[in-house]
Design brief:
By secondary structure, the chain is of the alpha/beta class. About 45% of the residues lie in helices and about 20% in strands. Helix 6 runs parallel beside helix 8. The structure holds 5'-O-[(R)-(carboxyoxy)(hydroxy)phosphoryl]adenosine and zinc ion (ZN).
Length: about 350
């Protein structure tokens, strides 16, 4: 056994026995370089984020090569900033967590390599975290009493999954989008509406001024009894309304279209997630992923959960979109379960969360 393995193994046992163990987490899977420090798994000591939104905005979406280069430049300063905010030095860190996937491979590699360097240099235990497990854990940071089991809707730029969270490290896929993720559909319709990247929050703002029944957008597939969903039909219908009007030289009620599209997406996510939770006999439904910042979705789910006798959880706004605190929390539970990554840890762009998921 290498000297590192020995020290990391001892470090893991010490972390597990220390209720106030400190974990430093790093996230670099897409367009945010983030670091955070947590104590005891759920207490956030600091959060630092460098967003690349201004960098990618000029291209209308994330440019992977530019993302990787920006992560390389920022990861060191962002980690230092997280330590500074917490008033801690590296010698006061007990464990490390890093997003290992899914995400952009070049972007993931930056965080993973940096975390491995720190682990080796300091002899610290390291764990690779699934980004979606991180999003789910954002709910633990917001609700100290929340524990599995519950049903979780994870809606982000790359995923729309309904998951049975059976334990902190135990996930089962109940339903998913068959095509576009909800966030991706928001971004594409926003782009067609001429809104800047990332489109989700911009579309939400525009929708505030619109009538959600201005345009009847429906997707037959989503009205069936299954738990899978489809968003590409809704997206195409919305984009076609814009194109057809442009060809005829007609005006479009942009705010009404944004509001109608938002309502249609949120209705599908809500109906499928609530029926999944009912089928599971769950007592609680949680929301996670970047789209969880959407107020229409939060309100619709809250109301539907009340009607169905389900407790409803959604993360504090600061934990909705990509951040490292959620990665630290998920990493904590992985370490508590005895999962530690070797120094051969790699970035896995298609890392899956649930067994059998493709
Ligand atoms: O989780 P996240 O930050 O990154 C990924 O893991 O993909 O999610 C980003 C996605 C983007 O598609 C963004 O447009 C969407 O979440 N999003 C929103 C809102 N805030 C972020 N979509 C709708 N309404 C929002 N307020
Ligand atoms: Zn994310």
């Amino acid at each position: 056994m290498s000297e590192y393995e020995l020290r990391a193994g001892q470090g893991l046992r010490a972390y597990q026995e220390n209720p106030r163990g400190r974990i430093l987490a790093i996230e670099s899977s897409c367009d945010e370089t983030a670091a955070a420090l947590l104590e005891g798994g759920r207490k956030v000591l600091s959060m630092a984020v460098h967003t690349q939104i201004p960098l990618h905005r000029q291209y209308g979406g994330v440019v992977p090569e530019l993302a990787s280069r920006s992560h390389v430049e920022r990861v060191g300063p962002v980690v230092k900033e997280a330590l500074r905010q917490a008033g801690l030095g590296l010698s006061q860190v007990d464990a490390l967590a890093v997003t290992a996937g899914p995400g952009l491979v070049g972007a993931l590699l930056v965080g993973v390599s940096y975390a491995k360097g720190l682990a080796l240099g300091r002899g610290l235990p390291l764990v690779g975290v699934n980004h979606l497990a991180g999003h789910i854990a954002a709910n633990y940071l917001t609700f100290p009493e929340l524990e599995p089991p519950f049903t979780c809707l994870v809606a982000s730029g790359g995923h729309s999954h309904i998951i049975a969270v059976e334990g902190y490290e135990d996930f089962r896929l109940l339903g998913r989008t068959r095509d576009d993720a909800a966030g991706e559909a928001f971004d594409k319709v926003a782009r067609a509406l001429g809104l800047p990247y990332p489109g989700g929050p911009e579309l939400e703002k525009l929708a505030l001024e619109g009538d959600a029944y201005a345009y009847p957008l429906r997707a037959g597939f989503n009205e069936g009894p299954g738990l899978d969903m489809s968003f590409s039909g809704l997206k195409t219908a919305a984009v076609n309304i814009l194109h057809n009007a442009a060809q005829r030289g007609e005006e479009v009620d942009r705010a009404g279209l944004a509001a109608s599209f938002q309502r249609a997406v949120c209705r599908t996510l809500t109906d499928k997630a609530v029926s999944a939770a009912r089928q599971q006999g769950s007592r609680a439904l949680a929301l996670a992923g970047g789209v969880s910042a959407n107020r229409c979705l939060r309100a619709m789910l809250k109301e539907a959960c009340q009607g169905a006798g389900l407790a409803f959880y959604c993360p504090d706004f600061r934990f909705c979109t990509d951040n490292a605190a959620m990665i630290g929390c998920a990493g904590h539970y992985a370490l508590m379960a005895g999962r530690r990554s070797p120094l051969s840890l790699n970035g896995s762009p298609a890392l899956s969360l649930c067994p059998g998921e493709k």
